[in-house]
Each structure stands twice: as structure tokens, then as C-alpha cells.
Amino acid sequence: MAQSRLDLLQGTLDLMVLQTLAALGSLHGYGIARRIEQVSGDQILLNQGTIYASLVRLQQRGWIAAEWGISDNNRKAKFYSITKNGRKQLAKDAAHWERLSNVMGRVMAMSRRG
Amino acid sequence: MKSLRQTLNRIRAFFHKEPLDQDLDAEMAAHLSFAIEENVRRGMTPEEARRRALVRLGGLEQSKEQHRDARGIPALDVLVQDARYALRTLRKDRVFTAVAILILGLGIGANVTVFSVVNTILLRPLPFKDPPRLAWLSANHGKGDLSSVTFTVAAYQEFQRYNKSFEELTGYQTFFNSMSYKLTGRGEPQSVFGIEVAENFFPMLGVQPVVGRNFSRVECEKGGRPVALLSYPYWKRQFAASPSIVGQTIAINNQAVTVIGVLPESFDFGSVFSPGLKVDLYVPAVMDFWKTWGNTFAVVGRLKPGVTVAQAQAESNILFPRFLKAHPDWYEDYSPKITTLADFVSGKLRRSLIVLWCAVGLILLIVCVNLSNLLLARSAARTKEFAMRSALGAGRSRIIRQLLTECLILCFAGAALGVCMAFGATLYLAHQGSLALPLLSSIKVDGTALAWTVLIAVSAALICGLVPAFKVTSGNLQESLKDSGAGMSQGRKHEGLRGALVISEVALACVLLIGAGLLLRSFLRLLDVDLGFEPSHAAALKVDFDDGGNAGKRGAILHEILDRVSNLPGVEAAGIADMLPLDRNRSWDLQAKGRVYRPGELNGILVYVVTPGYFRAMGMRLQEGRDFSWSDAPLKDDNKAAKDEGVVVINQAAARFHWPGKDALGRLAIINGNDRRVIGILSDVRQSSVEEASSPQMYLPVTQASPEGADLVIRTQLPPDTLRSSVMATLRSMNPGQPAEQFRPIQQIVDHAISPRRFFVLLVSLFAALGLILASLGIYGVISYSVTRQTQEIGIRMALGASQGRVQMGVIGRTLGLSLAGIAAGTVASFGVVKLIRSLLFATAPTDPATFIAMILLLGVVALCAGYIPARRASRIDPIVALRTN
């Protein structure tokens, strides 16, 4: 099972994080990581730690904001939420991703026939 | 926009590591507790829950590291780490660090100093407005003495009127010493140095007075109100920089002169137009007054935008011959050679400076090779450290980066030391008033020089760091780790490379030494030149007298001065001349009576107006005939061709030129229309330059010609300053207006004339000595290191019966091999290099065998000495101790 998990493409993790925050609102790092794992049906080979590199990168670009808060089970945690700029960026990246995956699908289909 | 924000955030993060790390720790802790909690809820034991949480995280430290890399500037972090590590290792090896920084400091210091000199004299634009458009006009195609290369007022004004190349022309009066100025009415009379300049001189150069204003048109006309501009240093010295002096009158030559302004500190007339000259005040040159004089005007022009020097030259080539046709009274057409002003100021020094620059470049190269060698020796000892680091995961590039960081730190420390030395050296140079180099006073380590320092420090680090870095990291990791350190094979692979480095170092030093040797020999030859006079034990002092233009009265005054001064105790001989050799000069026409000259054959020859006894006081030698006497009576009329016959003394060059193949003594010459009998022939005197052969000269008695000022020359065995008070008292008793003057040793005038060469020779020799020391250090290092490494081997050989002498010879043989290879390469290279300095040599062939042999021997002996010390150590090795230490 472990061998068949997907390696993440460069830059895709940032997009996933943005999408997760856009869909679910404010979340802490663990929450984001778990959410991505669940949605992917545990198909993604994700070292949860890498999420923090992604978070700091997005934060420095001004696409997400962070704030310390209290979790449901009363623990102190850092909560991230998407910003207006982040939503714009997400729209742009999502469109780009859509086009790329369409093209990839078509190309792969062709090679099978050929 | 996005990336800018990110960059700023990253930079901020770099400087706020601690709070951000604490934040990250808290976040990680929260993450783990969430994960553990969830795992426990699924039924794991707390230990298992924690382990699984860490696994899913991908390692706590790794996660933090990833975060930090994304957050800050990882390259900079590595650099800081490397720098810290480098500083620690360097601190551990103090001797190495000190030696390395010292030699780098010397090398870089020499480079920055020379760069500052080159930058000031050659590279930086002149301190005037739009300097590239300024041009210098040198009459008579730029050939001959001061009188020949200057213009008459008429020629200057004609060219000014008709030329189309120049926006503006200006000039100054070159015979500044002819006009002596003294400041009176403020304590005892003082002589001041003044120069007459044209009305537009300062405006054209773009020099604005800091206080007051420039000359007005009226002030530059005949009969205008006498005014003066002060130089900044004189204003500070004499008037305590008081602005209120402007508008006041001062008494110059007993005449009221209004001070109308002070020139800026940055303007130094002497440093541009006449190196070594200190000017106190500037007065307007009244053209109507100078009109009746001969060639006295130096001309500077500002080209129109877009006009080249060549175009201006072409135009002047056409114009001046036309002027001559239009003015039958002109002696010559004054066709000038036109160059840029910068070329006039520094053109002659260009080659010397470039040679100097190359010499320090060689020094830096030797320093780098030397350091490379030291680093190589050190890295051989550190092989295991590097092997260990690569075994622990450091990549090759990381280790190279580490070594280069060490080099950079060394080089920047060396550069800091070097810049301090350069600051000191340039400050010293800037205050060498006796050194006749242009722009000298403005030499300093400026921003450009600092940028140059950074550039050479970085290149030095790359040059000396790369070889050892690659050498160290190219080895086999396992082998290095296995190597016990005392084995025979260790470091041997470096041996060949180190030998090659030493050979190149010796070769470079050899080139430097031979170049310096040739320049030094030229300088010694120059000191040996027969000047035609005896500069030692003679000194000159300016004398002020008022003869009212009457030759008879002048003779009487000067005769009395000399009588009195000669009788002072300590004075062996005394005489007066208007101009001294190697100082300033003027020229008049002389013709052999009855001889017909080809057109253009006659050039003015240098003329000196002297008293009887002057030749003896200067140590000049009469070959034939007699000295002047006080009974050489005044001519009835100086100017018109009279029947009256005067006398003249000429030098051998003049005799050869005007009376070739005949005895000139007793023959008649025509000078300024007067017949004069040649009464004496003088040995040739080096008058305008020590290096050039004497040109024709004539000497006239003060009773029969007007002198241009007067220098009293005394010959004495005492230090001249001890005679100053008695001589001054004598002069004052005869003329209360005699300004306070100092004795100027004649030797000082000679030194001033050869000071640029002395300066270059001194520097090049200094650099050659430095190169020699560095090369011997390199040899010592390599041989010493190989002896240490072979201690055991030598021990075994001695145990097997090798004698001390044999061991010693072996080491010396290796030294000899290295130095001979270096010397051979260096000698071959020198044959090429000396061609470049050929024009800088004086009476020395570029392949002068004596110099080559002497320098090669010197280098060989020093190299052997450097090798002898380790050789001695090798022969003292005790076989038992050597074998036991394993």
C-alpha cells in the first residue's frame, strides 16, 4: 500500500492547502494535513511536517493569515485562514490546474491508441 | 509584488529567528498533541501513539528544518554557519592565520596604494569643469625649452580670434619667477609666490572662488585697479582664513593690491600645471604689458563640443603659418602640438604608472600563490577532518564552499589591514611636497579604491582558495579515513602541486627582481651623471634688489652684495644668477657672426644672466677662456644694434653647434642684435633635465643684460641654515625691503628633478624585495613541510648509514631544483617583460647582463638560505627518535 501512494508534484501541496482553507475556513496545521489525507482517500504520500513549510510560504506571500486560538478540545493552536489575495490566487491556480490536467488526460489517451 | 513581499518577509525572518522558532516549537507541539490524542482515541498505547505521530510528521527536526528553509534565507544561514566554523578553525591555528593575514595585507595594501596613485593621476578626470574638452597647446610642435613651447601674446590673441575649434582659450604667464612678489606692511617683508593668469582662466576651468569673485575685464586692462585672488592654503596660513580680508588691500611690492577673492581648496595650480609648485596668489595678466615680451604665455583651451583634438590640430596647422605670413615681425609661426590637458599632466607618467601597477599585480599574484601553498599544506593536515565531514553527509560543494569561506575571511581580514596601510601610505604621499608628481596632494583612498579593494580581495580568495579546495575534495574518502596520519603516502600527492606553485612563485619574483634591478641600475646611472656643476655644499637664496633698470647701478649693487657675503665666515664662494640649472629657463637667439643658417636651423638657446664668481660657486667648470669680471662694462644701448661689443660665455654644446670644427673662443656672436665676444667655454651643464644631454647654452654678465630675478648661490661646508641669519642680515642692511627667504640647497633642486624616477624605483624595488621575501617564504614552507613529512624516512636512511651531509645535500638539492626551475622560467619571461620597460630605462640596456646575473644570483642565494634551514633540521634528525615517534 505504501509503495502505491502518490508522490506530490512540486507546488501542488500549496494549492491543496489553499483549497482546503477556502472550503473549510479557519483550520490549524494538523487539521489541514488530516483533511487532505482524508479527502485523498489516503492516497497521498504526505509527511505532515511538509505542510508547515507550505504554510509559512503561503503566509509570507500574503495568501493566508495565521492567528493563535483555542481548538475544540481546548488546546492552544495556530489557526490559518485564506485571505482575499489567497482566493484570487486560488482561482488562478485552479484554472491553470484544470487546463493542465485536461491536456495531460488528452495526451495520455492519445499514446494508448498510438 | 508578491515575490517582493515574500522576499521582505524572508529577510525579516532571517533576523528574527528566535521568536519565530519559539512559535514554530509551540505549533509543532500542538500538532503532536492533536495527533497523539487522535491515535490514543483509536486505541493505541501512549508510547505507540507518540511514535506513530512522529512517523506521520516525518520527523520533528526535519519538519522544523523544512519550515526554516521555506521561511528564511537558507544560503545565508549556511554562510553564517561556514563563517562561524571558519573563524573557529582560524582561531585555533593562530600562526597560520597571522602569517596569511599579514602577507595578504602587504599584497593588498601595496595594490590599493598604487591603485590610488594610478586612479588619481591617470584615471580620475582632472578637477575642472568638463575636463575631456580641455586641451593643452604646446608651441613649436612641443619641442624645446620653456621659451620655445610658449606663445607670445600676439600669437595667442591671433589664434583666439581666428580659430573655430575652441570655445574658449586662456592662459597664464609661465615666467612666474620673473615677477617676484613680496608682501610688506605685515611684519618683516615676505616673498609670496604669484602667477599671472588671463581674465577667463578660472571661469574657463570652472573654478569658482569660495569667497569673493573672479577678475573683472577692467582689472585685466592696463591701468586697471591692482587686484589679487588668494590661494586657499595661503589664505589660511597668512590671513587665518578670515573672510573679511576680501575687499581689503594688502601691500604687494609696496603697492596697494585689493584682495577680491579666495580660490577653493580643491584648486591647486601647481599639482596640475607645475608639480611641486605652491602658489600663494593670482593676479591678472595684463596683455598690453606682456605684448612687448617674447614667448611667455602658456595656453589652455576648451574645445567646442564634438571637436576632437585632431581636428583642432589640423586647423592650427593651417592657421599658424598664415599668421606668420601676415606678421613679418614674428620670429616663428608657433605651430603648436595640441594634446588633451590630461595628457599634458600625466602623459609622461603613463608608462611608469602602468609598470608600477603591473608590479603590484605580480606581488598580489605571488601572495596568492604563497597563500595557496600554505592552505594546501594545511589542508593536507586536515584531510581527515574533511573525510569525516563527507562521511557525515557534507556534499563536495559544501566542503568547497566551506574552504572558500575561510579564504574569503582571510582575504577580507587582509584587505582590512591592507586598506589601513594604504590610508597611511597615501596620506604620507599626499604630503610629499618635494615629489614632482602631478595631483599628488589629492591622492587618497577613495570609494573607487575601496571598490577595487573588494574586487581584489574576492579574486585573491578565489585564486588562492580554489586549487586547495578542489585538491582536498578530489581524494578518495575511504583512503583518507584509513590513513593513519603518520604513513608515508599521506600528503605526497600534494607534493607535486606545491612544487609547481613554488616554481611559479620564484618565477614571478624573478621577473620582478630583474625589472626592479634594471630600473635601479638606471637610477644609479642617473646619479652618476656629470651634471656639469657640484650640487653638494651649495645653496641658493632669492635676493631682492632695486637697480631702477640701470645696468651700471645693478653691477655695483650685486658686486657689493657678493663682496660682503663672500667675506662672511664659512662662505667659500658666492655668485648670483637669474636662473638655476634644473629650475626654470628661457631662451634667446645666438648666431655665429658671419655664418649663414638654413631656415629652421636656429632655435633659441638657454640664456642665463650671471655675476662673476657664479661659475665657481656652482662648481661649473670653464674649459677655456675666463670668467666674467666686474670690469665687463655695460653696453651703451641694450636694444639697438650698437657698435659696442659685449662678452658671452657659452657651453661646449653651443660651441660645437655654432662653430663646428673650430675653436669658438674669441669669436664674435650676435645676440639680440648685439655683437658679443666669446670669452669662455663652459663644460656642458644639465640644465633642463638630468636625463637629457645638454643643449646649447649661453651666459651673459649682469652688467650687460637684464636678469630675471636673482638667486644668490653660496658654496660652504657648513649647513646652509647656519649661515642664513648672517646672510639675511647682510642683505637687509643693504636693502631693508629684502623679504625673509630660506636657503634652498642645490642638491634639493637636483633631487626634485629626479624625484619621479626615485619614487618609481623606490616602489618597484620595495615590491621586488617583498616578492623575494614571499618567494623565499614559499620555498621554506614547502621544503620544511617535506622534511617534517619525511622525518621517518630520513631516520631510516640515517639508521642505514646515510651521513648528515648526505641528508643535508638531498634537501638542498631539492631546494636548488625548485629555485632553478623557477629562475629559468622567470629569466625567460623577463626577456619579454623588459621590452615593456625599455623606455623607462636610462643608459641601461634592457638585457643588461650584469643586472640579470646579479638578480639571479641574489634570488638563488636567498632561495638556498630558505632551503638551508630545513636542510639543517633534517640532518639533525636522530634516527632513534624519528623511528620511535611512529
CATH superfamily of chain A: Winged helix-like DNA-binding domain superfamily/Winged helix DNA-binding domain
From N to C, what is the helix and strand string of chain A? Answer: HEHHEEH
Strand order, main sheet of chain A: write it out: 1-3-2
The CATH topology of chain A:
Arc Repressor Mutant, subunit A
Strand runs of chain A, count: 3
**Percentage beta strand of chain A:** 5-15%
Terminal CA distance of chain A reads: 31 Å
Describe this structure in words.
The complex is a heterodimer of chains A (114) and B (886). Chain A is of the alpha+beta class. Chain A has a single domain (12-113), classed as Arc Repressor Mutant, subunit A (Orthogonal Bundle). Chain A contains four helices and three strands, in the order αβααββα. Chain A has helices at residues 12-24, 29-39, 50-61, 84-113; strands spanning 27-28, 64-70, 76-82. Chain A has a three-stranded antiparallel beta sheet. In chain A, strand 2 and strand 3 form a beta hairpin. The longest helix of chain A is centred in the last third of the chain and has 30 residues, at 84-113. Chain A is globular, with a radius of gyration of 16 Å. By secondary structure, chain B is of the alpha+beta class. Chain B folds into four domains: 2-72, no CATH class; 140-335, no CATH class; 349-528 and 752-884, no CATH class; 545-738, no CATH class. Helices cover 54% and strands 13% of the residues of chain B. In chain B, strands 3, 4, 5, 6, 7, 8, 9 and 10 form an eight-stranded mixed beta sheet that branches. In chain B, helix 6 packs antiparallel against helix 15 (350-381) and helix 15 (350-381) runs parallel beside helix 18. Chain B is elongated. Mean pLDDT of chain B is 86; it is low at 484-490. The chains are: A alpha+beta (114), B alpha+beta (886).
